[in-house]
Amino acid sequence: MRIALFTETFLPKVDGIVTRLRHTVEHLQRHGNQVLVICPDGGMTEYKGAKIYGVSGFPLPLYPELKMSLPRPAIGYALDEFQPDIIHVVNPAVLGLAGIFHGKIKDIPLVASYHTHLPQYLQHYGLGMLEGFLWELLKAAHNQAALNLCTSTAMMAELSSHGIERVDLWQRGVDTETFHPEQVSHEMRCHLSQNHPESPLLLYVGRLSAEKEIERIKPILEAIPDARLALVGDGPARQALEEHFAGTNTHFVGYLVGQELAAAFASADAFIFPSRTETLGLVLLEAMAAGCPVVAARSGGITDIVTDGVNGYLFAPQEEDSGAIAATVRLLSNQQEREIIRQNARKEAERWGWASATRQLQNYYEQVIYSELPKVA
Q: In this structure, which CATH number among 3.40.190.10, 3.30.450.40, 3.40.50.2000, 3.30.56.10 belongs to the domain 181-350?
């Protein structure tokens, strides 16, 4: 198959969506498909054999790490040259609209996927009044597709409740070879804890942005006086978070990737994830694959991954700080239970390889191309 993949974010950006797309492109290419990635220009022209067509853009005012690239006629010429069998639009917002447009006018089968819970993000940027309007825009875009894929059952229900049709599940995936308990490293633990390896080590990995609600980790840290917190990642909220966590045992590590990131997960005592806006939470699966016990909000796609008291701990978001504190204290105070959680977390992650997730996606593509799914008028 020849697959044109439109995405609002790609390499060199580092986040969960890019991680999924990297592995997807790699596995699609490995199995004889040809992929054209149309994305904001990041200086790359090829990835794992796939051609990258970069579209120049400008940084988003509220999130300078992200570029907004506007559709332009040259995209049509690139598609004409590539001759795709199918177009896959990831998070159609701006650039993705070009994929929908060209799919319609050229009668190319169209698939869309939903990875970022934008309507909930609005609340964290003072734009909550626009949530209803945004859902209408998303519905108009997604309902042009023959199939709309979500990465969790919670998001399938959410999209369906807002009138988005033809919704199905794109199963989760994680690199269980890179992220492994054997990556535990005393050197990394010393680095993350700022040379206090004997202290309980709490870890967060992900974007430093308002919608991740990282400030909610501070009461947990304060409730465990000898604990250390490592925040791995970067983003627009870093300066505000540095001020918020001033005077606490918090280390802003910056980005880690590959083996270093795997070592960070494997070397921590608990992975704390307070976000309530996750469509899946890929980073949770990476933590679990590395055997790092998870304490996370019972919200969105997280409940598809974490079973409370079995392979991690969940707390009710409405409990404010008390539920998260209680779950973390319980985890740190019972070494035997923590070890069982570690083992169960690894077993859960082992069920979800990228090869299987990409085979499922390829089957969806074939169903759409060969009209096994109902056509959109």
A: 3.40.50.2000
CA dist 103 and 65 (Å) reads 29
SS3 assignment for the chain: CEEEEEECCCCCCCCHHHHHHHHHHHHHHHCCCEEEEEEECCCCCEECCEEEEEECCEEECCEEEEEECCCCHHHHHHHHHHCCCEEEEECCCCHHHHHHHHHHHCCCCEEEEECCCHHHHHHHCCCHHHHHHHHHHHHHHHCCCCEEEECCHHHHHHHHHCCCCCEEECCCCCCCCCCCHHHCCHHHHHHHCCCCCCCCEEEEECCCCHHHCHHHHHHHHHHCCCCEEEEEECCCCHHHHHHHCCCCCEEEEECCCHHHHHHHHHHCCEEEECCCCCCCCHHHHHHHHCCCCEEEECCHHHHHCCCECCCEEEECHHHCCHHHHHHHHHHHHCHHHHHHHHHHHHHHHHCCCHHHHHHHHHHHHHHHHCCCCCCCC
Structure-block tokens of residue 90:
């990831």
CATH number of 2-173+353-369: 3.40.50.2000
Identical fold for domains 2-173+353-369 and 181-350, yes or no, is yes
Which residue from 49, 61, 54, 43 is spatially nearest to 22, judged by alpha carbons? 49
Over its C-alpha atoms, the chain yields an Rg (Å, rounded) of 21
- Residue ranges per domain, the chain? 2-173+353-369, 181-350
**Which tokens hold the place of 250?**
């918090």
Cis check: omega of the bond before 64, within 30 degrees of 0: no
Give me the amino acid identity at 65: E
Of 207, 203, 205, 255, which Cα lies nearest the Cα of 229?
Answer: 203
| Number of residues assigned to the chain | 377
Tell me the whole-structure pTM to 2 decimals.
Answer: 0.80
Q: Which tens digit of pLDDT belongs to each residue from 243-283?
A: 999 999 999 999 999 999 999 999 999 999 998 877 677 89
- The 10s digit of each residue's pLDDT in 289-347 is 999 999 999 988 888 889 999 999 999 877 767 899 999 999 999 999 999 999 999 99
